[in-house]
Amino acid sequence: MPIRVIVGAQWGDEGKGRIVDWFAATARYSARYNGGDNAGHTVTVGQRIFKLHLIPSGVIRPKVIGMLGNGLVINPRTLFDEMETLRKAEIALPPERLRISYAAHLITPAHQALDKAIETARGKGSLGTTGRGIGPAYTDKATRQGLRVADMFSGDFCERIGDAVAEANRTLKMLEAAALDPAPIADEYRRFAERLKPYVADVSLELDAAMKAGETVLVEGAQGTLLDIDFGTYPFVTSSSTTAAGTLTGLGLGLDAAKDAGVVGVVKAFQTRVGSGPFPTELSGDQAVRLRGTGSNPWDEFGTTTGRPRRVGWLDGVLLLYSIRINGINELAVTKLDVLSGLETIKLCTAYKRDGKTLTDLPFGPADLSPYEPVYEELRGWSEDLTQVRKWKDLPIFAKLYIQAIEELAGVPVRLVSVGPERDQLVEKEGPEPRR
Ligand code: IMP
Known about the structure:
Blueprint: E1 3-8, H1 16-24, E2 29-32, E3 41-45, E4 48-52, E5 65-68, E6 73-74, H2 76-88, E7 98-101, E8 105-106, H3 109-122, H4 134-142, H5 157-174, H6 182-196, E9 200-201, H7 203-212, E10 217-220, H8 246-251, E11 262-268, E12 271-273, H9 285-292, E13 311-313, E14 315-316, H10 317-327, E15 331-335, E16 345-354, E17 357-359, E18 373-380, H11 397-410, E19 414-418, E20 426-428
Parallel strand pairs: 1-10, 1-11, 2-5, 2-10, 5-7, 6-8, 7-9, 11-15, 14-16, 15-19
Antiparallel strand pairs: 3-4, 12-13, 16-17, 16-18, 19-20
């Protein structure tokens, strides 16, 4: 298998970080291909909780080399802060262990200011972005006025970044937001350039060589399928290609890398989203609080990047089927099954209803889900605490039946089930299937 892609099958926050960490035990490379520090990937190892926004989660394993592909938008300040946090946790990342594409785009404070000002101007119609400057940085990329990592080393870089900030100031003024001083930003980025230089690489070339040498490349998607710029719930999406196909353009890999690729879809045992946009199976009131938690635990449903409470609901099988198709998912990892313990019944959305017709596919994608009403299958819950379970055979029968119902609906096998945030709170699915 040339590459294994770990992709979110929902609206992000599926728990990809800990699944990447599991597969990273046998990988040599861990690569990110999209997004920036809007992501929040958590890996819990004993007392240590790593919250990574930009650096691939796989680097927590000592032999893994992290790669940041050309598809990313990189805020150097976040990058260095994160490297420092990891260094304090005794995870040193010398240039041999972190490679950054020369063609990735830079996020500057101007992008962050624009992101916030545009959101404010949208008022009630805001998208609920993370405010990290992601949209404006990808806008500059698409309009061919972005600054790439390689540009940091050209003689006129300070002038170019100064011009970019001055240009952003014109828009900020129109939006009645405070202007930025270009000089200190240019100066800060000049210093970033010196620190970044040893890490800059041709990620495409290095990964190609690695694959030819038979190394395993683990690819880590950020956000989720339903936040993809093309295939998500547009316009309530992020600005990058979050789906497995983004791997090729975001890392500079040829189509042959996709041949026999393993695509693991990570899906939470229920559904969550942060920010605005459609959510057919959304819950409110006490049921929502029950699934979300109160925020007293780090793994409760509050944003890793923004701290915002996440919207929660029942698992949406129609959207899962859509994600499986769009990504070519060939196995699933179901996370947070333990959170459902104690519920009398669990609802699983198996289809949508529209004008008296039942359907399991989306004729025009998920952008407008308002005409649909979810159709639920009700399953019996279980009362047992799952957090100590490590073997499939030790899961309560009704927990197994819920996983089996997901498998039947999805048409692909579930390989892993998480029962808590800790690295070892994972169950590898095995053995004969329970009968319903
Ligand atoms: P942006 O990526 O900051 O532009 O935000 C666009 C939308 O994607 C907003 O609804 C965000 O809440 C959402 N979003 C961005 N990154 C993540 C993530 O890592 N997890 C979940 N939602 C995200």
